[in-house]
Amino acid sequence: MAETVKKAPAAKPMAEKKAVATKTVASTKAPAKKETGPAKPAVKPAPKKVATSGDKTTKLGNKVYATGKRKSSVARVYLAPGKGEITVNGVLMATYFKRSVLQMILRQPFGVTGRDGQYDVCAFVSGGGLSGQAGAVKHGISKCLTLIEPDARGTLKKAGFLTRDSRTVERKHYGYRKARRSTQYSKR
User: Which H, E and C letters describe 25-46, residue by residue?
Assistant: First the structure.
């Protein structure tokens, strides 16, 4: 069998390559525009900022807003003077949290400060389970109470309601069935 060898095309001298490159660059440039005066920079007006602090709490008329968190749940809580009605996601607390323990958790900040039946709560919760959601609403209510009544901060802080409970589910680890549960031992 005869092998065929392909010949490489002859290389162009370096001077020719440079000349070809300058021609292509010059032809691709657009003609320069003439400036007819000083260019005005496009400046957008600065957006109006809403008064917020680092923990995302604001005052909205007679309502106060704060965000509460627990496990993987996040609660947006609005607190206003009223008769003591608590609604969660547009439903009364007793129908949303059917277990009495969870209802008690929501009322704890009012009981500690002695403000039972003085404020209406409207909360919107997402993520996690019912226990985490109840803890998130409790955290949000406590933060709202400190905004309305700064004197109540000491009692709420001492009770531990203003501290975000950082305990979350541990991640699953490689080689295990869950975070710490290992596979079943097999003797044979």
Answer: HHHHCCCCCCCCCCCCCCCCCC
Indicate the pairing of strand 119-126 with strand 86-88. parallel
The structural domain count of the chain equals 1
- C-alpha to C-alpha distance for 135 and 103, rounded to whole angstroms: 10
Q: Which residue type occupies 160?
A: G
Specify the CATH number for the domain of residue 90.
Answer: 3.30.230.10
* Residue among 69, 84, 184, 87 at smallest CA distance from 133: 69
| Cβ–Cβ under 8 Å, residues 123 and 87 | yes
The pLDDT score that the predictor gives to residue 96 is: 97
* pLDDT classification of 87: cutoffs 50, 70, 90: very high
Q: Which of 53, 52, 81, 56 is nearest to 66 (CA)?
A: 56
pLDDT band at 135 (very low <50, low <70, confident <90, very high): very high
In a domain, 91, yes or no: yes
Which range marks the domain in which residue 64 is found?
59-159
Residue 155, domain member (yes or no): yes
